[in-house]
Amino acid sequence: MSLAGIVLAAGRSSRMGSPKALLDFRGEPFVLRILEALEALDLKTRVVVVGPDAESNEIRAALSRHDCAFVENRDVDGGPIASLRVGLASLHALAPTGVLVWPVDLPHVRVDTVDRLLETFRRKASFAVVPRFGTRRGHPIVWGASSFAELSASPEATRDGARAVLHAHSSEVQEVPVDDPAVIDDLNTREDYERLVREINRDAY
Fold first, then answer.
1. What angle do CA 58, 61, 66 make, to 5 degrees?
2. What would the 3-class secondary structure string for 128-178 be?
3. What's the rounded Cα separation, in Å, for the pair 84 and 104?
4. Beta-carbon neighbour count of residue 177 at 10 Å?
């Protein structure tokens, strides 16, 4: 079974006020923390989707010592689905069995949580494997190869994002209950980030 990792790091971070990918998490940029997690999970093919602006050069510099590929999403206004499509297109020749898609604003998801998602996919090879905290689905998501065509071309996904594909195939989606609230904790604003920093500092004592 061939699995790849895609990190979505092309957003404008307009509500955050500074690039999310480069914010500090336990002494490292968000994007580096996620890439190191992918390495720890033994995903040998790792793709980071960046935007077309100067920020992408900073991201590349932060990851200069890590073995990963960079692809550029020029349609930043197209949202995460545009970045996911660019990432999937870059992997077409490799034909992976599945891809783990990890948004860059979730650096605090535990590695053992993601490992459970990957193990579930390896056992059942589902259309998609999604973490569930309480009653809510979260991220990262493992997408099976059977989902790629729809993710890449569905008009519904263009309009409503990847969640439209999940909804259309709800009976084929494997949910994994987790005790990790980070899977539903997108960090979009400066207040969100400051809360994360406070939690990290509190846990350090």
1. 135
2. EEEEEECCEECCCEEEEHHHHHHHHHCHHHHHHCCHHHHHHCHHHEEEEEC
3. 12
4. 9
- Tokens found for residue 116: 């459970």
Cα–Cα distance for residue pair 79/67, rounded to 1 Å: 26
Distance in angstroms (rounded) separating the CA atoms of residues 102 and 9: 9
The string over 92-106, giving b where at least 16 C-beta atoms fall within 10 Å of a residue's C-beta and e elsewhere, is eeeebebbbbbbbbb
d(CA 171, CA 174): 8
Closest CA to 68 of 23, 97, 24, 104: 104
Angstrom CA distances, 8 to 56, 59, 101, 177, 202, stand at 12, 12, 7, 23, 28
- Here the tokens at position 137 are 């689905």
Q: Residue 11, SS3?
A: coil
pLDDT at 3: 96
**Per-residue confidence (pLDDT) for residue 200, from 0 to 100:** 80
pTM of the complete model beyond 0.90: yes
- Tens digit of each residue's pLDDT (9 = 90 or more) over 115-159: 999 999 999 888 999 999 999 999 999 999 999 999 999 999 999
* pLDDT tens digits for range 162-194: 999 999 999 999 999 999 999 999 888 899 999
